Please model this.
Amino acid sequence: MGNTTADEYAGKHVEYAPPPLTPEEEKELQQMYDQMDKLHMKPLWTQIGGLMPNAPEPRAVAHKWDWARLYKLAQRAGELVPVGRGGERRAIGLANPGLGGPTYIAPTLWAAIQYLAPGENAPEHRHSQNAFRFVIEGEGVWTVVNGDAVPMRRGDFLLTPGWNFHGHHNIADEPMAWLDGLDIPFAYQMDTGFFEYGTEQLTDESTPDFSRSERLWAHPGLRPLAFPGKQNSSPIGRYSWEHTDAALKDQLALEDAGFPGAVAPGHAGIRFTNPTTGGDVMSTIRAEFHRLRPGAETTPVHEVGNRVFQVFEGSATITVGEETFDVRHGDIVNVPSWKKWSVGAGRDGADLFCFSDHPIFEAVNLARTYTPEGI
Ligand code: GTQ
Ligand code: FE2
Model:
């Protein structure tokens, strides 16, 4: 409050200085603030710097969750806590230490480890929240999405877009655990969520090698004529590891042969897409897979929105702002909005699954990125 030129204060907020007042006025001012408080009002001038920072100042912090520890707890929950109607899922959500308690890995995103023992069923339900699964290891679970039985195997990326009934069952002799990602916090904080129970028995107990959705939609570059037009979410229920791995291998092989293909030197990357639009798989969640050659590094970048990485194979160092996290198989690290991040691969290279809420911000024209190295 006061006259200055924009240049003088470019890029920073000025600390709010209370006005010079007589003791009498000071008392009145305090009474005014008290009255505002009682009437559920609050002045802007005492809080504008915090409310409207020059650049995002996320309350979420970068954090690493250790897979071995997560898995052990999930296993213990498998012994102590049955799965069924009511609790719905044996899923353990990750709570960002900066967000003060709720099970949000980011203000918009949920990430959890879900565990099913042999023979267990997770009953069908549906919700407006979008969901995916990423299978870090194992097989033997089928997720049934709108009556379509979808196999879940190592490296697979599976979709359950909002309002599709879904349940899971483990028909193997081994337990299985995987990563769930949803937009639960976004729906909760924006009050947009709806939820309904379905059947306790799964609507399709078959165990096919390929889901019907893949047989229709997952032949490279080919779409069925019976379903023209755009769909809000990808109709592909399972993006199999075989395809993801082949795409990444080919990018690096092309780089070796001197052709374009890699994102950056030694860095291959793909995005999972909706074949009816070419855009993201779901309206709120983006998913990618990154492969780094031994010692390769991604280009450091600041982005509006939140990312979550899970290491699939190999080892890496993830740098977020001033912090670094050494990660290996299964470990999960989040990147809060606008924090500069990069990933460097260890001696054996690194394969990383990654998801983000970037489609939300692109849809409302709030996306921004900044690469300090100018690449
Ligand atoms: O598997 O349906 O981690 O509804 C959270 C909510 C998993 C699921 C979660 C869910 C599910
Ligand atoms: Fe669900």
